[in-house]
């Protein structure tokens, strides 16, 4: 059974950093791109970015709203994807989800973690 | 960036009703349109990918279709567990974008 679990969220002051982890199980992690999404309280879904599999260079793409501040990485040996968030702003307050990108099905996001809440406030 | 609009933004329906939600893309995205269902406090759930292919395990009362840049998801025979918010999302090009969502609530 595919499972994704995010961790590392919490309350952080503006300008500080936080790293989220996404622990995966139940599939061959190294074969899949992994995405990060967020949802501000009462708002819609927003794509944050994703990281390709190592076979495709492990390269990353980001939303303009986080470009230069957030960094996605992966450790295939541990089956973990990371979202490093720097210089956090109050508008980054959201529930953050990780998801598996299914390259077999037109790059849809087929499995999601339950989310990790990040609150940026002084 | 590709913009997605959804209509309606919300609707009220009864159990057993047939409901249709539309998503329009600002430019051609071929078949790269996905539909997700989200319930309060939960992660999104993939319902349909590639515009019309039902994800494994999703009930057959859900269906998707596409015509040009217009995509629809239809629920034929709404069930109590279908009351939720539905989002479309394009995976044609980065940045991947979502529609603003359509909330389906009980009439």
Summarize the entry for a quick read.
The complex is a heterodimer of chains A (122) and B (107). With 122 residues, chain A is an all-beta fold.
Structural class of chain A: mainly beta
Report the sheet with the most strands of chain A, covering strand number, pairing sense and barrel closure.
Answer: 7 strands, mixed
Percent of sequence in beta strands of chain A: over 45%
Q: What would you report as the Rg of chain B, rounded to the nearest angstrom?
A: 13 Å
Largest sheet of chain B: 7 strands, mixed
Give the % helix of chain A.
Answer: under 10%
Low-confidence stretches of chain B: none
CA-based shape of chain A:
globular
**C-alpha Rg of chain A (nearest Å):** 14 Å
Q: Total number of β-strand segments of chain B?
A: 11
The count of helical stretches of chain A stands at: 0
Shape of chain B: globular
What is the N-to-C succession of helices and strands of chain A?
A: EEEEEEEEEEE
- The averaged pLDDT of chain B comes out at 97
Instruction: Name the chain pair whose interface involves the most residues.
Output: A-B, 23 and 25 residues
Mean pLDDT of chain A: 97
Structural class of chain B: mainly beta
Tell me roughly what share of residues is in helical segments of chain B: under 10%
* Tally of alpha and pi helices of chain B: 0
Order of helices and strands of chain B: EEEEEEEEEEE
Indicate the topology.
The complex is a heterodimer of chains A (122) and B (107).
Chain A: E1 3-7, E2 10-12, E3 18-25, E4 34-39, E5 45-51, E6 60-62, E7 70-75, E8 80-85, E9 94-102, E10 108-112, E11 116-120
Parallel strand pairs in A: 2-11
Antiparallel strand pairs in A: 1-3, 3-8, 4-5, 4-9, 5-6, 7-8, 9-10, 9-11
Chain B: E1 4-7, E2 10-13, E3 18-25, E4 33-38, E5 45-49, E6 53-54, E7 62-67, E8 70-76, E9 85-90, E10 97-98, E11 102-106
Parallel strand pairs in B: 2-11
Antiparallel strand pairs in B: 1-3, 3-8, 4-5, 4-9, 5-6, 7-8, 9-10, 9-11
């Amino acid at each position: 059974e595919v499972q994704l679990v995010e961790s590392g969220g919490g309350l952080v002051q503006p300008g500080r950093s936080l790293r989220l982890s996404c622990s995966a199980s139940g599939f061959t992690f190294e074969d899949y791109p992994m995405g990060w999404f967020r949802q501000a309280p009462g708002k819609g879904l927003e794509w944050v970015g994703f990281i390709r599999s190592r076979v495709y260079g492990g390269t990353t793409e980001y939303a303009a709203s986080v470009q230069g501040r957030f960094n996605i990485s992966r450790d295939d040996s541990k089956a973990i994807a990371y979202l490093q968030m720097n210089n956090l702003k109050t508008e980054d307050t959201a529930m953050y989800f990780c998801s598996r990108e299914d390259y077999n099905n037109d790059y849809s996001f087929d499995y999601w973690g339950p989310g990790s809440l990040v609150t940026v406030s002084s | 960036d590709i913009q997605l609009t959804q209509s309606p933004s919300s609707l009220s329906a009864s159990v057993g009703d047939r409901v249709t939600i539309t998503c329009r893309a600002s430019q051609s995205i071929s078949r790269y349109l996905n539909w997700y269902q989200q319930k309060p406090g939960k992660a999104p759930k993939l319902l349909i990918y590639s515009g019309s292919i039902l994800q494994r395990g999703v009930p057959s009362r859900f269906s998707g279709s596409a015509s040009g840049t217009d995509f629809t998801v239809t629920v034929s025979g709404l069930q109590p567990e279908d009351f939720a918010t539905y989002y479309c999302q394009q995976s044609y090009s980065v940045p991947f974008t979502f529609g603003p969502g359509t909330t389906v609530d009980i009439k």
